[in-house]
Amino acid sequence: MKDKDQGSPGMVKEITLTDICKEIMNGHDGIQGCAILDLQSGLVLGVSHKLAGLNDAYVEAIAAAAVDLFRGPTVKAVENLLGSHFGKKVENSIQELQITTNDGFNFLSTVPGKPKALFFMGTDKSLTLGLGWTLLRANLTKVAPLCP
């Protein structure tokens, strides 16, 4: 997706997943950060956050943990057991998760139509769970066009 760069007449700036993450994060005070992750490699495809001191190493560790929750070896082992029990292939069965911590809520969802992409949105507790899910689902449509 391309957008005209407002600072330079005639210049075209490529919109990135990080740009979209920043837009999403700035769209509501309660959103502390968001990221798009590659579910196969664990790479961070785009990220923006308001958390002081959260460097790349922390972001990568959080990304690895999130990917593990969706496609990790334990999840795959359970899917294999279920598949064997029910006589059908069970794969990539987890689509959404919500995690509550002491300080906030974390909403995670695969991106519809983009099976390799995971959307992560972290909020403070000023948001209700319902609003968090509403924001997550509304923003999936913003990130989907740029996901691999």
CATH architecture: 2-Layer Sandwich
The CATH topology comes to Beta-Lactamase
Mean pLDDT: 92
Q: Which strand-content bin applies to the residues? A: 25-35%
Helix content: 25-40%
Which oligomeric form is depicted?
single chain
CATH homologous superfamily identity: Dynein light chain 2a, cytoplasmic
Give the count of structural domains: 1
The biggest beta sheet is recorded as:
5 strands, antiparallel
Provide the structure class: alpha+beta
Report the end-to-end length measured between terminal Cα atoms.
Answer: 13 Å
**Which outline best applies?**
globular
What is the element string, with H for helices and E for strands? EEHEEHHEEEH
Provide the gyration radius in Å: 17 Å
Strand order of the largest sheet: 4-3-7-6-5
The low-pLDDT segments are none
Number of distinct beta strands: 7
CATH class: Alpha Beta
Helix count equals 4
Descriptors:
single chain, 148 residues, alpha+beta, Beta-Lactamase, five-stranded antiparallel sheet, two-stranded antiparallel ribbon, 37% helix
What this model shows, in words?
The chain is α+β, with helices and mostly antiparallel strands and 148 residues long. The protein has 4 helices and 7 strands; from the N terminus they run E-E-H-E-E-H-H-E-E-E-H. It has a single domain, classed as Dynein light chain 2a, cytoplasmic (Beta-Lactamase, 2-Layer Sandwich). It is globular and about 60 Å long. The two termini are 13 Å apart.
